[in-house]
Amino acid sequence: MNTFEAIRARHSIRKYQKGAVIPREHVERLLEAAMLAPSACNSRPWEFVVISNEELKEKITQIHPHTQMLKTASLAIVVCGRPDLQEGACSGFWPQDCGAAIQNLLLEATDLGYGCCWCGVYPVAERVEAFRSLLHVSSTPLAVVAVGKPDEAPDARGWFDPARVTYLD
Ligand SMILES: Cc1cc2nc3c(=O)[nH]c(=O)nc-3n(C[C@H](O)[C@H](O)[C@H](O)COP(=O)(O)O)c2cc1C
After folding, report:
1. pLDDT (0 to 100) of residue 89
2. Angle at which helices 94-111 and 24-35 pack, to 10 degrees?
3. Domains of the chain and any CATH numbers
4. Which end of the chain has the smaller Cβ count within 10 Å, N or C?
């Protein structure tokens, strides 16, 4: 699968084959793809919490109403920002940097045959605090990504819209 094929094949998946196990080497590939993303001043302002524990996944569905797909997903990967790793002219870019890392992860997962759903946490303050307390982290939870073997094949929801483009020659 080339890059554009992976981009086209990626769709948010909300139904997974329950009980599918993702081998550690694949989990590390996803995280490596994430950490190869560009970041402001190469500050790499992220950390990742990988959750396979059923009880914890269930607790996430209680604190974030739009994560019900975690009930069948194999993993919840919580992507946390580290604003403390950015200073001066590099400050404040961490949400963009983490977004780039998440998209890399989604595309690598697609190439490996997994499905994902990116669920936003930041900037909803109550969600950020709830994830901090649940996971005992001092970083800033930005998103939780469900990962698993797809059990649905939704149609593409994105499209190329030339009306959103301005060419300045
Ligand atoms: C920042 C962000 C937050 C999102 N939050 C959720 C969410 O909480 N729950 C969910 O089911 N999908 C969530 N999504 C997935 C979007 O609904 C999805 O990407 C969009 O509908 C386009 O569909 P596609 O990903 O299949 O192209 C989120 C996506 C982004 C980028």
Report:
1. 96
2. 140
3. 3-151 (3.40.109.10)
4. C
Task: Find the 89 Cα to ligand 1 centroid distance in Å.
Answer: 30
Closest C-alpha residue for ligand 1 atom 3: 120
77 Cα–ligand 1 center, Å: 15
Cα separations in angstroms, 49 against 70, 139, 151: 15, 11, 24
The pTM for the full model equals: 0.98
> Residue 3: is it exposed, middle or buried by C-beta count within 10 angstroms (0-12/13-18/19+)?
exposed
Peptide bond into 23 cis (omega under 30): no
Ligand 1 atom closest to Cα of residue 102: 31
Residues 68-85 have pLDDT tens digits of 999 999 999 999 999 999
* Strand 140-148 relative to strand 75-81, pairing: antiparallel
Q: Which of 17, 59, 63, 30 is nearest to 145 (CA)?
A: 30
Tell me the angle at which helices 125-135 and 54-63 cross, rounded to the nearest 10 degrees: 160
Q: How far is the CA of 67 from the centre of ligand 1 (A)?
A: 10
